[in-house]
Design a protein that fits this description.
The protein is an alpha/beta fold. The chain folds into 3 domains: 130 residues, NadA-like (Rossmann fold, 3-Layer(aba) Sandwich), CATH 3.40.50.10800; 84 residues, NadA-like (Rossmann fold, 3-Layer(aba) Sandwich); 80 residues, NadA-like (Rossmann fold, 3-Layer(aba) Sandwich). The chain has 17 helices and 12 strands. The chain has a 4-stranded parallel beta sheet with strand order 2-1-3-4, sandwiched between helices. A 4-stranded parallel beta sheet has the order 6-5-7-8. α13 links the parallel β9 and β10. The structure holds iron/sulfur cluster (SF4). Iron/sulfur cluster binds next to α6.
């Protein structure tokens, strides 16, 4: 992949760290999301307007690592669910513009009930979060009395409120290890839960049957083919991937954990990345001299989260101008969900 094309002006705090060789135009994305060289100037203008608006409106822009590259570039803080939850709790900005999906913005609101939390598009949901409801969790709890409920942050406020503790992909193993109890219901991601169960065999973990379709679609055979074409590459996988993919991985971690994982392999030049394609853009910004290859052997067409790509620059600008769409959570539900989230935040990252 060539990375020495257009030099682009800085657009915000995240952009300042980029190297001169970075370019939105030469980033190899699925065709629909590629920024054409003739559009770069408009993108930069819009990014500049968004940064100005954010300052004027006392807003902090948080963005998940799966956001569109152009959105990643206007963020004050980029990260995984855990990093963003921690930052949301620490901010003193009046507004939090959350460039991610609904459950993330909802978690930010739960941790900051006195702040305005804005999600630029209400269409940004999550199939995994939708796979469990408060009723289905209640039903499950009744079927497994005496079990502690560990719920992945990819869930609604109502489900979090019915849980004992939350976790993210960055701390799931530590969260489960931190529990005194041995009988656990792990919801809703079966792949993450199975991976945790392998790390903590002393616990009796019952798995809910949910999954992230973006990660679950990847098969070991596709990764194997990619490894054959890059035999010296280090394979880094997200724990939402299936077991046959995780079995081939040298590193298994959250998206922010991937940034650290690359640093642990200074001798390696090429990395095969098994997660949503926008993470490759993030890694390229941090490590412009390394090569990152999508694990599906494609350019990310399969490892694509449609929800994460619902947010674009015009919607971020509109969110700041019109104060939309404000996330509200019932105070009683929020109190229960906050207990599960705060309990999680007291546990450190897996590493
Ligand atoms: S990548 Fe999967 S878990 Fe994450 S927001 Fe998209 S559908 Fe949900």
């Amino acid at each position: 992949m060539t990375r020495d094309a257009t030099t682009i002006p800085s657009a915000g705090p995240a952009a300042e760290e980029r190297t001169a060789s970075s370019s939105l135009a030469d980033f190899c994305t699925p065709p629909t999301w590629t920024v054409r060289p003739e559009d770069i100037e408009d993108v930069r203008r819009l990014q500049g307007e968004i940064r100005q608006l954010a300052r004027a409106r006392s807003a902090v822009i948080l963005a998940h690592n799966y956001q569109l590259p152009a959105v990643q570039e206007v963020a004050d803080i980029l990260g995984d669910s855990l990093a963003l939850a921690i930052k949301a709790r620490e901010t003193d900005a009046e507004r939090i513009v959350f460039c991610g999906v609904h459950f993330m913005a909802e978690s930010a609101k739960i941790l900051n009930m006195d702040r305005k939390v804005l999600l630029p598009s209400l269409a940004a949901g999550c199939s995994l979060a939708d796979s469990i409801t408060a009723d289905s969790l209640q039903d499950w709890k009744e079927r497994y009395p005496g079990h502690v409920v560990v719920t992945y942050i990819n869930s609604s406020a109502e489900v979090k409120a019915l849980s004992d503790i939350c976790c993210t992909s960055a701390n799931a193993v530590s969260v489960v290890r931190s529990l005194r109890e041995d009988k656990i219901l792990f919801t809703p991601d079966r792949n993450l839960g199975r991976w945790v169960a392998r790390q903590v065999p002393e616990k009796d973990i019952v798995l809910y049957d949910g999954c992230c379709p973006t990660h679950d679609v990847l098969r070991g055979i596709s990764v194997e083919k990619t490894v054959q074409t890059h035999p010296r590459a280090v394979v880094i996988a997200h724990p939402e991937c299936r077991e046959d993919v995780l079995d081939m991985a040298d590193e298994i971690c959250s998206t922010s954990g991937m940034v650290d994982a690359v640093a642990r392999h200074p001798e390696a030049q090429t990395f095969i990345i098994a997660t949503e394609w926008a993470m490759v853009y993030r890694l390229q910004q941090v490590y412009p001299d390394k090569e990152f290859v999508m694990a599906d052997g494609c350019i990310g067409c399969r490892l694509h989260c449609p929800y994460m790509k619902m947010i674009d620059l015009p919607l971020v600008k509109r969110a700041l101008e019109e104060d939309v769409f404000e996330i509200e959570v019932d105070p009683e539900v929020a109190a229960g969900a906050r207990r599960s989230l705060e309990r999680m935040l007291a546990v450190p990252r897996d590493r």
